[in-house]
Amino acid sequence: MNKFLKASLLSVILFITWQIAFSQTLIERIKSLPDIISVEKMEPNPFFKEALIIKVKQPLDHQHPALGSFAQRVVLSNLDFDRPVVFITEGYGGDYGANTKYLNELCPLLNANQLFAEHRFFGKSIPDSIDWKYLTVENAAADHHHLVTLFKLLYTKKWISTGISKGGETVLYHRALYPNDVEISVPYVAPLNFSTEEKRHDLFIRHKAGTASARRKIAHCQVELLKRKQQLMPLFDKYCTDKKYTFKASESTIYDYCILEFAFSFWQWGRSVKEIPETTAADPALFNYLIKICPPDYFDIESGKPTFPFFVQALKQLGYYGYNPEPFHGLMELTDTHDYIRKLFMPAKTELSYDPAMSLLVKEYLKKDAQKILLIYGGSDPWTASAADAKGNKKILRIIQPGGSHRTRIGTLPEYQRKKVMKTLEKWLE
Asked: Structure pTM?
């Protein structure tokens, strides 16, 4: 057969293959991919044409696939195969991603498809038997690499990875380990910690968040809550009893931890200083405000089960923030918060050691090799204290919204910042 006939035959075969693929439904195309366990239709957000809940087979350990596997939940919202893909690497469970109402803000901005991935060992992406040694940054990044590799067989246009908070961290780890998987990354409010009890957050809360007068008012409220502890404890005890909360420390100790968490939570979620009760407020008003800002369910054993894997990761690789009881010396019976994650959130005799190697790897990657990464932070969000830093890398853009909280998004930015973000994204997508 001469070269012309061979080329013609190949063209016919490719045309027929394309016609068959084009005639397949979305479900049929997804089912044709490797490692697809199940595909289920769901009602799409009106922005998209179709949506599917997909279970994908992932190794427990990507370095040793023979050790077993689990099913990772993925939600695909299809707009068109000739459009980009916004790839959301959730850091926790993904129930909201399977909700018709969910629409990542980048999808309408970029006219893109949406692929949402629940994090391994959270939500419905849990193996039959959990061994925490397999819950690593490296394995999670390999999960996402596998998903990108699979779905790029269908979606061949540009990919944009994104995530919020821990999901933003997940974006950074994935990008540092697999830099060519996506063209652009947009991590929101993503910390990069180097210790299980970072001190930067406390310093930020006491010296940088909001205004000096706002910081003083919060501190005065905390002091008043401690001064009235004896008379407020019956209300606190009744609240915990009614809610059936159980803790790994006494309720008196948990009360003190709530006071320490108070300022962090206030700034993280962008509360209004105007709502803070005066120090002369009645006991019920002061107590109700404490519960509004920092309810004790954060420390409750049962309430914490869905997020328990996070604390495993925090102790192993991700790090977290520390508390500082010193400003309340003489008012607070809690004087030592060292190792509080292990004391308050972990089973007895938990042995996990922290390794900052992956955070350090990301730090170096951002300084030297990273490109087309848009970092977005809130100016009063305590997590900005440990924000990822490009260190002069002009191929990365970092935006900090003045006064912004952990809810900072492109849509919340002032117009001048939003224009800069959109101009940058448009340039990167060329």
From this structure: 0.92
